[in-house]
Design a protein that fits this description.
The complex is a heterotrimer of chains A (282), B (334) and C (550). Chain A is mostly helical and 282 residues long. Chain A contains 10 helices and no strands. The two termini of chain A are 25 Å apart. In chain C, the strands form 4 sheets. In chain C, strands 1, 8, 9, 10, 11, 12, 13, 14, 15, 16, 17 and 18 form a 12-stranded mixed sheet that branches. Chain C has a 4-stranded antiparallel sheet with strand order 4-5-7-6. Helices cover 34% and strands 20% of the residues of chain C. The radius of gyration of chain C is 27 Å and the shape is globular. Chain C is α+β, with helices and mostly antiparallel strands and 550 residues long. Classes of the chains: A mainly alpha (282), B mainly alpha (334), C alpha+beta (550). At the A-C interface, loops of A face helix 9, helix 12 and helix 14 of C.
Chain lengths: 282, 334, 550
Amino acid sequence: MRIFTTLKLSNGSVSLKLGSSCVIVLVVLSFLVPLLFDLDPYRISDNLRASIGLWNGSGPLLGTDDLGRDVLARLVFGARNSVGIGLAVVLVSMSVGIPLGLFAGVYGGWIDTSIMRVTGILMTLPTILLAIVIVSVLGAGLLTAMCAATIVAIPGFIRVVRSISALEMKRQYVQAARTGGDSKLQILWSEVLPNCWVPIVAQATLGFGDAILHIAALDFLGLGAKPPMAEWGAMLADARPFIESNPNLIVLPGLCLATTIFGFTLLGDALQRWLNPRTGVH
Amino acid sequence: MFKLGALTTTLLGISLIAFFAIRFVPGDPVVLMIGERGADPQQYREAVARLGLDKPMAWQYVSFLGRAVRGDLGTSISSGRDVSTELLARWPATLELGVAALLLAVLVGVPIGVVAAIYRDTLLDRVLTACSLAGYSTPNFWLGLLLILLFSVALNLLPVSGRLDTAFDVWNVTGFMLIDTLLPAARAQYGLFAFYSALHHLVLPTVTMATIPIAVFARMTRASMVEVLSEDYILAARARGLSPVRIIGLHALRNALLPIIVVIGLHFLNVAIAGAIMTETIFGWPGIGSYIVSSVYARDYPVIQGSILVIGVVVILTNGAVDVLSRLANPRMR
Amino acid sequence: MSDLIQVLKERDVNNMTIVRILLAFLCIAFTVSCNRPAQTANTLVYCSEGSPESLNPQQVLSGTGRNATATTIYDRLVDFKPGTTSLVPALAESWTVSDDRTTYDFTLRRGVKFHKTEFFEPQREFNADDVVFSIERQRDENHPFHRVGGGSYQYFQGMGMDKLIVSVMRIDDHRVRIVLLRPDATFLANMAMPFMSILSAEYGAKLLAAGTPEKIDTQPIGTGPYAFKSYLKDSTIRFVANAAYWNGKPNIENLVFAITPDASVRLQKLKKGECQIAVSPAPADLTAIRGDKQLVLDEEDGLNIGYVAMNVEKPPFDNVLVRRAVAHALNKQAYIDAIYLGNARPAINPYPSTIWSYTDQVRVYQHDLEKARALLAEAGYAQGFTTTLWTLPVTRPYNPNGRKMGEMMQADLAKVGIKVELVTYDWATYLAKVKLGEHQMVQLGWSGDNGDPDNFLYTLLSCDSVTRGSNNSRYCNADFNRIISEARTANDIEVRTRLYQQALVLLSEDEPIIPIAHSKVFRALSNRVKGYTMNAFDLDYFASLTLESS
């Protein structure tokens, strides 16, 4: 299989390894740690006057937030939420974007034009703006934030799949199959789709990072997850009043966010460079 | 000509989104547009008549388009002023920040890309690429907070919020603080101190907003330079004995920069607005970005609708213009 | 390629050094201008926590609005001595009260001038016409300015002044007579409240003739120490000292309100010297302020209450057992520890113990989950119920973090089976919707205006103020209402004390609002500010402040 032979390429393997290890660490941490340790991200401390603080020898390893909740627990649960949310967003946007892209690329004509036009319109507005507008219309909340992130991610998949399928349609053996009597649908299924998987996976990985970023941004603005949910973006927003007294509350969730997005972007980027070793440009 | 058709449909599409988005909000559409306070029966009737909310949807849409073309984007619920006036009042702040961020991004990002391309595949290249990728992945709202933490809280060097120290009463002529503080009236009163204050306040938001563009421009430049540097005519020039600086400066850079400029043009607005939303909210910068966010909090639907329309139209037209210009400048691009 | 790289490496070093030196220069240039220039030496910047609802104190309910207008642009007939609850003459030099205590004759001060600004030049001095104009605008529905600005005068109407005042007449240029329907012990103190500020009748007439009456609220003219210059919503309000002020020209020439909703940003600005007074710093920053040599922390026990109101018109809160259950479920001490960081006292009454007639012989609701569950079961809600709690979107003197308190309340109520969804709106919408009674449970509070129990009880809990005032629980109990109305008319303070004590006991039995805390109020000041006295009413007076040079 082509994928494994290209793995041997030394160019970009460092970023590939780094990226995939980031992602794996994230997934492992977020699901394994809660099983191994007894973490409660929601328990409000009994001694609230002295609740906020760093590690003082005993108690939570990364300190507590202003309500005495375990910061480490909230970060880990936030990781779990992010993975879950990112997965949901990516899967849904894939299930909508891939068929649309395939139809656009394979059938061409007015189907192609109309789908691309709609995609173009959606891509006009900057993604975060579109997400904010969607949330303002549907109401604030985690579900609507996920809807917004999904809608914003769909055009990416449509574009990638469409360009691959349009390219494939021009190939000689496809032309031959068409004159031989295969319907477009058959060709879509047997020839075009299998060639799309690698770019789709690359796009999905990048989309994962984007989804996490968008949800975190919406949470930060207060338009996403509602309290007391443990979400990195919301933790950042809650930490703002404590920027003088307890800056670690700002540094830690953001670090998790940055590292996660970095890992996914790195991985997706490296995957994309397989297809196009010379550029690797978005 | 084909492109013109595409442009029109995209414009119409954005207007449709702007119009129908509000229709999805649950609740009485009249109340949504005039606000929940002070909606006495008389104002209610007036609003229905003015917006034609008892007429069929198609009529409403056309009337909406008609009003928008004439510059009437409705009335803001929170302030009672025209949405177009409010947006116009806030554009310069975002533009100033955007231009400053763009300048910084070009001045920092392009050289990084050039250096990375020259030292391609060495450690330096790997480090620079990793750094730019890190910059791309850092959420800009977190970066802003970190910068505040370092420069405002810890070092007490730079201010945290606003465009200007409020003690300075500077007359708002152009809306661009860097210009207004240099006007004779302001200089007479405050010397150059108002200008310094404006600069002071500009630093952190600009750096925050420029980080992602720096990363993008660095990568674009690197990719473009790498392509150009491996072209035959470069090798030929080298063989002819031209100095490396001349090669880089005259030939390579010029050819590499053209696609970069196109990309910069296309990206600028998009990045400016996306970055502006978060950056302005964190730094209390009174521009379009923070205005949209506060309108969402206040459920000021006329403002949200007007903003989508304006921003969408501006982005579409700008992209179209850049597209046309790039074709004219370099026909071999297609 | 390699030799190319070789040559470039040598060249690049030079370029990089130049860039580095340039950057260094820029950095230095930026940090140099840290000292405040002389031109702004006589400007006081006050970091306030929000935009005023209006620039007219007649229409303003919140402390934010009062601070922006009442002590700057306007004066009243009488005023409070700053820092106390004792009345002193202001625009009225003296007054007499008739024997039946229904007629008040005010003798007005002479030589008081209204502000002369870019948009208005007064042709005459302040006289009785202005007093009549200001009061009649709120009282008389047919007054040409009554409907201007919406026609809603929450204080005037919510306190029942429109029914209390029978007539306002000028006797001559410098004397005004106000006749009341019945004796009212609180009347004189109420005349010192911001909503009784005196507007210019001449300005009103001019605006009416020009067809722009709304400017009376958006471009205000008053007699106060500072004249209005400009207002940029959510940004700044600028004032200039009134050189002709009757009480002496203020020392500080320029006054600027920098509207900064975020408490930590206010502190940052204070530290950087961008403002000299910061309102309500976050409790978490208090230690830092105390430790900073350049800052001063002023504090005082606030005359305020932070509470949770339950809308008694909406089930299940129409059931007193449910309300009592909720009161038992909430852990007030925990909130005080976490939100106020100890800078507040747990509350059992709508006003703090510093106000006369306070009693602790009321029904007290201890934090007791078992009792809460039992009461809920008795009320028929053994399985609990679902409801919403509206949380404050802004910091208030009586509650520094409504959202966090909401989270804690959510957790507490969940323990007895009540599922709470937290909802919030921006401040103006919040207040408007609460006034319309759309909420179930809502966080709010009140800062006293004149030190009288009536100011708390009547405004917050009378039948009058359900539709026209601040009765967020929409509580209208005949007995309670009768008692507090009687207490208003009584003259003897012992009689009044007894009545209010009765009222407090009755209230605690019904518990339509759950008092949470009486918070301390804080101001953080630059050590350059001199002459500032802390005020329990959360009002700031600027006229007598001086600013030392740094």
